[in-house]
Amino acid sequence: MRVVGVQHQIDWHDPEATMSRVSPQIEGAVAAGADLVCLTEMFSTGFSMDTDSVVEPVDGPSSQFLARSAAQASDMAGRPIHLVASVPTVDPEAHAELPVNRLFVFGPVGLIGTYDKLHPFSLSGEDKYYAAGSAPLTLTIQGVRVSFFVCFDLRFAYSFWDLALDTDLYVIVANWPASRRLHWQTLLRARAIENLAYVLGVNRVGDDGNGFGHAGDSVLLSPRGETLASAAEIETLVIGDIDPGVVAGTRERFGFLNDRKR
Q1: Does residue 110 contact residue 117 with C-beta atoms inside 8 Å?
Q2: Quick check: is 233 catalytic?
Q3: Is 38 a catalytic residue?
Q4: In the CATH scheme, what is the homologous superfamily, with its name and number, of domain 2-259?
């Protein structure tokens, strides 16, 4: 399976402008042979606590854009295309009091899965504005078992460990600030090495409305932590191929997961 991380700028609180920005990038990813295309956290608005301005219903403009883009890309490519991003979402059936930071996975015929960020970022007050999710998400796409996380989740190794035996690829979408880029780079590599799985980290670039800069540093790592593809501080695509056989072979060669106590 070919995965593509779309490292993009976000027009602050302007979904229409951002969707116009990322549409050609999605087309470029599909032209590069993508089966799974991953955008960023709160991809259309930026990481914002101004919920009155950014939160959308489950079937709001941003999720509709993702659904439409996945369907159109699949039709044009003649193969199933899956599209991933998170959106600030209000879902009274799931959380009555607060919205959620929800990751959507759309395929050629519609929604195939959602994941609500398990660990809201308390340093920015996200835990006061968005409810924490309650369950992980692992999907099999093109024969690859993919587990999804959002930004701050990356710091909590146990969430990744709990899914390791059923995961070939971890996808983490983010708005990770440049001031902590070393943490992003180090933690992504650690998750690949300790779980003997591929890791795709997809981060935004540019400044947000709060003045925080983002360096990108999107990357695809092998099950041994080797860099397969990476990006600098520009809008670009991170492209690579995922082979579950490589995961199985690495785990057979290095049986570390069998020694885990958790």
Answers
A1: no
A2: no
A3: no
A4: Carbon-nitrogen hydrolase (3.60.110.10)
